[in-house]
Specification:
mainly beta, Immunoglobulin-like, four-stranded mixed beta sheet, 0% helix
């Protein structure tokens, strides 16, 4: 990515990752990478928290065209979360105060002509 990635406001989710649907929280959501670039890190933290939680991708990379499901603990009450992605070239994009109780899918796209990463919310 040669152009600067813009910061776009939206709404995102938390993570207490579990595999079992019985433990699913209302904040569970899917991130879809349609940027054309691999995403190296994905961080989700409670809104207005001044630090980012651990990378939920772990050692994995979210390649273009792939998706990743974030699962929350069943007892999680917080709905508003911030999300940050970092690309393999070090550029980042941030979305703030995403209401994950109302979001099931976030599709990320990068616009080459504007140099902006945007998030479509479903």
């Amino acid at each position: 990515m040669k152009a600067k990635i813009a910061i776009v406001a939206a709404a995102t989710a938390a993570f207490f990752l579990t595999q079992a649907p019985a433990f699913a929280g209302d904040q569970d959501f899917e991130v879809v990478n349609k940027t054309g670039y691999p995403i190296k890190h994905l961080h989700v933290s409670e809104a207005n928290n001044n630090s980012w939680e651990e990378d939920v991708l772990g050692r994995d990379v979210l390649n273009d065209g792939e998706s990743f499901e974030l699962k929350f603990a069943k007892g999680e009450k917080t709905c508003k979360w911030d999300m940050k992605v970092a690309y393999d070239d070090g550029e980042t994009a941030v979305w703030q105060a995403l209401n994950l109780c109302k979001i099931s899918k976030v599709t990320l796209r990068w616009n080459k002509s504007t140099g902006e990463t945007t998030a479509a919310i479903d």
